[in-house]
């Protein structure tokens, strides 16, 4: 199988971020995705579905990008049959996400063909009492990315990748096997097979999380103070540190169509906003912004510390993707 450099999915590439080196303090996770946050291990009956409206704010220039309104959906369920690599069966979660966007690139006023990008992920991990330890993950993506900030012609401006990334962790989380398969195509050139299989070592320095669970896991972290974790960047093929700075507290005005368990919610929501940036490698991005609901009460946590909004700059400074929560279905827990 030929090896080729993977063009990252421009919206959900690994959430690798800058941190100071040295020993890291392990994170403690609260079960803030429940109304009763004490449910660290009592997770039976979990079923959460979230839906986000995805919009795009482009910038003017010779080479531009536009997206139609898209969707981002997540689902969280419990499982009493999470099987570790050594055969041990434990209780934990299955978390899935799906992003769908249709867009087009333009060069000097000439628009290229419409494309549809899709990113689907599934990750299994243990409950908060076990530190949300990842067990396995799978990513499937069709991604259209620019080759440069100003290509010479629209026909060869883009790299289209279809790929799958499967990560299987050792039971003691001292390592993992990461398998990449897929194809990559530039313009009218013949598609190349891409792929590799890599064994990675994970030491016990602080908290390690799979990239596909990070956005969810931050709901269980005390965002009022800075924290650091680590994750594997499968685009660059290295483990990186992830630093989350202390958050800014402010009320959040919900999307005009936000419903919670079928009921419209229009009141201001107490929230935390965290800004962070990527560090290292060739696929780093500008600052992202995440807004999470704050814990209302330990035993009456109405908004479950849900991710309310997210702003993601696009590669090559072509604009910003905005995610806003429009529908939440929470389990009665």
Kindly report how far apart the N and C termini lie. Answer: 48 Å
Largest pleated sheet: 17 strands, mixed
Count up the helices.
1
Q: How much helical structure, as a percent, in the residues?
A: under 10%
Q: Using only CA atoms, what is the Rg?
A: 20 Å
- Shape call: globular
Low-confidence stretches: 1-5, 15-21
Q: Into which percentage range does the β-strand content fall?
A: over 45%
Mean pLDDT: 89
Structural class computed from helices and strand pairing:
mainly beta
**SSE order in H/E notation?**
EEEEEEEEEEHEEEEEEEEE
> How many E strands?
19
What does it look like?
The chain has 333 residues and is mainly beta. It contains 1 helix and 19 strands. It has one helix at residues 214-217; strands at 47-58, 63-67, 70-83, 89-107, 110-111, 115-126, 134-146, 158-169, 175-186, 192-201, 227-233, 238-244, 248-252, 259-260, 263-264, 269-276, 288-293, 307-313, 319-329. The protein has a 17-stranded mixed beta sheet that branches. Strands 11-12 form a two-stranded antiparallel sheet. It starts with 46 loop residues before the first strand and ends with a strand. Mean pLDDT is 89; it is low at 1-5 and 15-21.
